[in-house]
Design goal:
Blueprint lengths: L1 H8 L8 H15 L2 H9 L7 H23 L5 E3 L3 H10 L6 H21 L1 H8 L2 H22 L3 E4 L3 E4 L5 H18 L5 H12 L40 H29 L11 H18 L4 E3 L3 H6 L5 H14 L3 H6 L2 H14 L12 H16 L3 H18 L8 H16 L1
Antiparallel strand pairs: 1-4, 2-3
Helix pairs in contact: 2-14, 3-4, 4-12, 4-14, 5-11, 6-11, 6-12, 8-16, 8-17, 8-18, 9-10, 9-16, 10-16, 11-12, 17-18, 18-19
Length: 440
């Protein structure tokens, strides 16, 4: 039996235990299952993308990608449509740039195919080294602020104001009250280090929503209509690609932005989880890293076909690693949990936006950690990083925040006489970014 497990999942009976691997997989699933409620909510802002279909696509993309991780990479990492990447899809590409969701899915598909090519040819490593560290860290943190801002809006804690653009909502009633209660619940669960705190917090907040009414309708904010059902069909969003406008400069930048976010999101997560698992060798290398990236790339391509945004490795995998997960059996367990979750769609889809919003806010907070590693005393790094941090949420556009910070970085480096230290990739990005703002 152990021999079969070794062949299939890379199971080492001398270092691993089946029960521990299964418990670790369940632990990872509980910490990341919030995506099943959050992803359909984010995509609800896009017309003609049914939430039920998006829920099914989210689960299926997670299942496929995590199974590839289990059987091919044999690592205890789980994958799902990424936070930040889904926000870029909806709020930047569709709502900001005005592209259709079909064209955005096409961009995700192309990005995934490029990721596969870059992984096979190992060009990905070269690209990684070409981007300055300060921008890598600032992008993740800026997206964290963006996600938190979206969560505050969904909860009604931040509302429109014609005089000041935004202001504080009415925290004593309706969804804003539920959002505040949710923040307290999730904050307490995380403080107490409860595993699956985000998911449990969302569910508890949704239960509170049964007694809090929407002031405009008088109806409870949460309305459950059953627990189990067959999953909705992905037919309305399956392989819905649109190929016109793909080869424009604007779409080239969109595809690159997806690729940029995916590469660095995956790299940062894999490094963090691998360090926790003890996979990093004395030279800082991660054995089998290319297989991990391939699982991510294949997941992205499958996710695009199914009808959802870029699939990526989840940092919540550290929860399973902390519980003792070390091989593909842990990832396989996560995939099985996602398969079971497919049949509980009524529960996930009944959760109101105000109940998932606190999770968005807390996830945004968690993504802020890298800014402590930026050298704020060095203006050549601090200025581009700061611009990236503030422009992503304030322009409501991840790509604008990235592109403007790239321009700032190249200009400051060049004007300070450090032009020889600027990589060719950064020069090309800066020129393309400037052309975008001149001609588009």
């Amino acid at each position: 039996m152990n021999g079969l497990l070794n062949i299939v999942f890379g199971f080492d009976s001398a270092k691993q235990d089946v029960r521990t691997e299964i418990v670790a997989g369940i632990t990872t699933f509980l910490t990341m299952a919030y995506i099943l409620a959050v992803n359909p909510l984010i995509f609800s802002a896009v017309p003609d993308m049914p939430q039920g279909s998006v829920f099914t696509a989210t689960a299926l993309a997670s299942i496929v990608a995590t199974l590839v991780m289990a059987f091919y990479a044999k690592k205890p990492y789980a994958l799902a449509p990424g936070m930040g990447l889904n926000a870029y899809f909806v709020y930047t590409v569709c709502l900001g740039m005005g592209y259709s969701w079909k064209l955005a899915l096409t961009a995700v598909l192309l990005e995934g195919l490029l990721f596969i090519i870059l992984t096979v040819t190992k060009v990905r490593s070269w690209l990684m080294n070409a981007i300055p560290s300060c921008l890598k860290k600032a992008v993740g943190a800026g997206i964290g602020l963006f996600i938190a801002f979206i969560g505050l809006q969904h909860a009604g804690i931040i509302v429109d104001n014609p005089e000041t653009l935004v202001s504080l909502g009415n925290l004593t009633e309706g969804k804003a009250l539920l959002g505040v209660i949710g923040l307290v619940i999730i904050g307490m669960l995380l403080t107490l280090k409860v595993r699956g705190g985000l998911l449990l917090g969302i569910l508890l907040t949704a239960i509170v929503g049964l007694v809090i009414k929407d002031p405009s309708t008088g109806e409870p904010l949460t309305q459950f209509h059953g627990m189990m059902s067959m999953p909705d069909s992905v037919g309305p969003i399956f392989c819905q690609f649109q190929w016109d406008q793909v080869f424009t400069l604007d779409m080239l930048l969109v595809i690159f932005s997806f690729l940029f976010l995916d590469i660095f999101d995956t790299m940062g997560t894999v490094i963090a989880v691998s360090q926790k698992a003890g996979y990093v060798d004395k030279n800082g290398n991660i054995p089998g890293a290319e297989k991990v990236f391939m699982a991510d790339a294949v997941g992205t391509v499958c996710g695009a076909c199914l009808g959802t945004s870029t699939t990526t490795t989840y940092v919540e995998s550290t929860a399973g690693v902390s519980a003792g997960g070390r091989g593909g059996l842990t990832a396989f367990t996560v995939a099985v949990c996602f398969i079971l979750a497919l049949f509980f769609s009524p529960i996930f889809l009944a959760i109101p936006g105000a109940a998932t919003a606190p999770a968005l806010i807390v996830v945004g907070m968690m993504m802020m950690q890298p800014i402590g590693e930026i050298d704020w005393s060095n203006s050549r790094e601090a200025v581009p990083a700061f611009l990236c941090l503030v422009l992503i949420p304030l322009t409501y556009s991840i790509s604008d925040g990235i592109l403007l910070s790239v321009i700032a970085y190249v200009l400051l480096e060049a004007l300070s006489g450090k032009y020889r230290e600027i990589s060719p990739v950064m020069w090309v990005l800066a020129v393309l970014s400037i052309l975008k703002y001149i001609f588009l």
